Amino acid sequence: MIHVAQLFTCLLLAGYAGAQTQNYARYDHAMAYLGGYLFVAGGRTESKDFTDTSLVLSLGTRVNSNTPDWQVQNGTNVPRGNGMAMVGLSSKYKFQVVLYGGDIPKDTNQYSDHEFSVLGQPDGDWGFISQSEIPARRMGSTLTYAPDREVIFILGGTEQSDTDQMAADPFDHMYFPASENCVPVRMQSEAPSSRFNHGAVMLNSSHLVVVGGMESATQAASLDQVHLLDTLTQTWSQVTTQGSEWFQSLTSSPPVVYKQRLYFFGGRIQNNNQTLDSFLVLDTTTYPWTWSNETLKQDPDQDSLQGRYSHTTFAAGQYMFIAFGKTEQGETDELVVIDLENKKRINEFDPAL
Ligand SMILES: *[C@@H]1O[C@H](CO)[C@@H](O)[C@H](O)[C@H]1NC(C)=O
Ligand SMILES: *[C@@H]1O[C@H](CO)[C@@H](O)[C@H](O)[C@H]1NC(C)=O
Ligand SMILES: *[C@@H]1O[C@H](CO)[C@@H](O)[C@H](O)[C@H]1NC(C)=O
Ligand SMILES: *[C@@H]1O[C@H](CO)[C@@H](O)[C@H](O)[C@H]1NC(C)=O
């Protein structure tokens, strides 16, 4: 049992630490990686619909996960909203972060309907791409860049920000950054149902996987089947999975891929009604694809990881970064780094490794 005086000291220390480093806690933000930087756009807190800052973190130097050196993006037209989708183009011909959708403050001069917000360099100004074919603004979509096809897939989302009204929009568009051309995706019977707050990630350079999400405010998408898109032929197929019986559904949990496995930390389960604190793996090297629970190793001095959702993830080689999100206590400012090869939470990311 902690003595009252000790507790008070802890609180004082916590207050002191808080005064030293800015607290950028948020959830429902967007994140993308480009050219050695992690970009974070917008997000919200319990008390504010829109955070004041969008951030950038260099991964070119060592990152201590307890004191990440987030810098505030200070160019012009920096996007600030929640429920947006964002991706970095690691393409030969273009260096660009593309952002789409979300809810934005009414009083700001930001991108609007049928527009992307785009960033061309780390400290730069954000610009816009306007096109009538870009779908109207949606919340909870995903943007996924398919390198073999040099195309971004805009998948799912909902036009309503009112959670009781949420109805998913169809999966439908792809955007060719080279020609700045946006066109509908040919839909087939094997394509995913309309959904939002799902996970979408490239399994390899040609195949995109869609997992989970909500089909409406109360109906989660089944996990017994996940969807695979061959981006070269634009053909959807369904893949059977096993092992998801106990958690049934998975939303607001963006996956990363390492060695043909999808890794998820946290998310919402049981029809969007419970926050998960597990580290889940979907192994695509077996048939059916197999879900499992993994135990994350951590050092005794590390606090146990709280469940969270509406966070963002990124994988650099064998390292998974988990940024911000919402826990049962509200928004968090945590940056968690996991060594996927050793299934261990680490305190420091070294880009040289
Ligand atoms: C903008 O931010 C960068 C770091 O992200 C910093 O080097 C630069 O001095 C800032 N510029 C202004 C005008 O604050
Ligand atoms: C990507 O993954 C899919 C599904 O497992 C597989 O069919 C395809 O051959 C893979 N492609 C490459 C280039 O590994
Ligand atoms: C979520 O859980 C609460 C309390 O357990 C329950 O009242 C509510 O109906 C549940 N909502 C859904 C959508 O399952
Ligand atoms: C995963 O962990 C949960 C909670 O500890 C447990 O109920 C469930 O049986 C586990 N599932 C698998 C597939 O290991």
Chart the SSEs and their pairings:
Blueprint: H1 4-20, E1 30-34, E2 37-41, E3 55-58, E4 63-64, E5 71-72, E6 85-90, E7 95-100, E8 115-119, E9 126-130, E10 142-146, E11 151-155, E12 173-176, E13 181-184, E14 199-202, E15 207-211, E16 225-230, E17 235-242, E18 256-258, E19 261-265, E20 268-269, E21 274-275, E22 279-283, E23 289-294, E24 312-316, E25 319-323, E26 326-327, E27 330-331, E28 335-339, E29 344-346, E30 348-349
Parallel strand pairs: 17-23
Antiparallel strand pairs: 1-2, 2-3, 3-5, 4-30, 6-7, 7-8, 8-9, 10-11, 11-12, 12-13, 14-15, 15-16, 16-17, 18-19, 19-22, 20-21, 22-23, 24-25, 25-28, 26-27, 28-29
One 2-acetamido-2-deoxy-beta-D-glucopyranose (NAG) binds next to loops.
What does this molecule look like?
With 353 residues, this protein is mostly beta strands. The protein is 5% helix and 36% strand. It contains one helix and 30 strands. The strands form eight sheets. Strands 14-15-16-17-23-22-19-18 form an eight-stranded mixed sheet, with no helix packed on it. Strand 14 and strand 15 form a beta hairpin. The model is unreliable at 1-20 (pLDDT under 50). Residues 243, 246, 278, 292-293 line the site of one 2-acetamido-2-deoxy-beta-D-glucopyranose. Residues 243, 246, 278, 292-293 line the site of one 2-acetamido-2-deoxy-beta-D-glucopyranose (NAG).
Strand content: 35-45%
Mean pLDDT: 89
Number of strands: 30
Helix content: under 10%
**What integer value in Å does the Rg equal?**
20 Å
Q: Please report the number of helical segments.
A: 1
List cofactors, ions and other ligands: 2-acetamido-2-deoxy-beta-D-glucopyranose
Structural class: mainly beta
Q: What gap, in angstroms, lies between the N and C termini?
A: 41 Å
Shape: globular
Main sheet?
8 strands, mixed
* Largest sheet strand order: 14-15-16-17-23-22-19-18
Low-confidence spans: pLDDT under 50, at least 5 residues? 1-20
InterPro entries: Kelch-typ_b-propeller
Protein name: Leucine-zipper-like transcriptional regulator 1
Signal peptide: 1-19
EC number: 4.4.1.28
